[in-house]
């Protein structure tokens, strides 16, 4: 699909049809709180998932630029994409790069069809920003490994079909980490919800107690888990979800804005910033395509993008309370504003805190 404009038009037509038939209700932060398996499967059936994956597995054999186009349109529409998001964004590229032939054949077609939800087990109670301090252990046993330990802040684990676990296989700080694919549900895996202030559940604590994982479910090589996890985090930290999470709200608020008002000026500034982030993101996509997952543009985009997202919630309040508004905001806008308020505190934390990422950027600039 070399014509990105044609692809964008295809996605918009799909979304217009979905809205017309009542296929979804727009949300802010839809890649985290918009879980709808059937929507993801319809997206897969329309040929709009896994565009960057090889044709032999059902993909389009395209590039990351095509996934970027699809992602932009889905997020701008507030579409419920959580069910497939982690699977397509970081799990599929990792399987393609490090997985066995059997793993590729088993997982990639299901990702492309929008059939699986994947959780990522990285952070732990005593190893959040410092992932090298992971204590979850994997011990050798006949034909595989036994995993014991606890992960926390795991998005969507209670809904996932599998979780990719970073575990310690030896005492070495970085070289002692490996990755494992644990299919769910599993009787030796306990998943406890962590409710948000809104009462909704998106995060979890996941405990593993002697969970058996066959050798065939080791992802990549033993001892390469740190390197692989850092590559996956590069895919996680970039993308339009780092600056478009509140766009459904901002679009809904345009109705009632007076020309030449303070609200119009602020809205224009937001759109200008988004254009800048899109330009940076296009460069980041080129890095990912070339395998350069250590480029400092990646943590930089995540840092400034999520700070921007948080600021847009304050901008939204200013627009809502502008006395020059021609009419009150819609009920849908009010719901989206409340949603954005609940989600905003997590923007700068998930995917690595901005404080840690600023350190990574600083070190990169000094090299």
TrEMBL record:
Residue ranges annotated for the Acyl-CoA dehydrogenase/oxidase C-terminal domain, each copy included: 265-365
Gene Ontology MF: a single term: acyl-CoA dehydrogenase activity
Cofactor annotation: FAD
Keywords associated with the record: Flavoprotein, Oxidoreductase
InterPro entries cross-referenced by the UniProt entry: Acyl-CoA_DH_CS (IPR006089), Acyl-CoA_Oxase/DH_mid-dom (IPR006091), Acyl-CoA_Oxase/DH_mid-dom_sf (IPR046373), AcylCo_DH/oxidase_C (IPR009075), AcylCoA_DH/ox_N (IPR013786), AcylCoA_DH/ox_N_sf (IPR037069), AcylCoA_DH/oxidase_NM_dom_sf (IPR009100), Mycobact_Acyl-CoA_DH (IPR052161)
Ranges of residues in domain Acyl-CoA oxidase/dehydrogenase middle: 119-211
Presence of the UniProt keyword Flavoprotein in the record: yes
Domain named Acyl-CoA dehydrogenase/oxidase N-terminal: residues: 3-115
GO annotation, cellular component aspect: plasma membrane
Record protein name field: Unannotated protein
UniProt organism field: freshwater metagenome
Lineage: unclassified sequences, metagenomes, ecological metagenomes
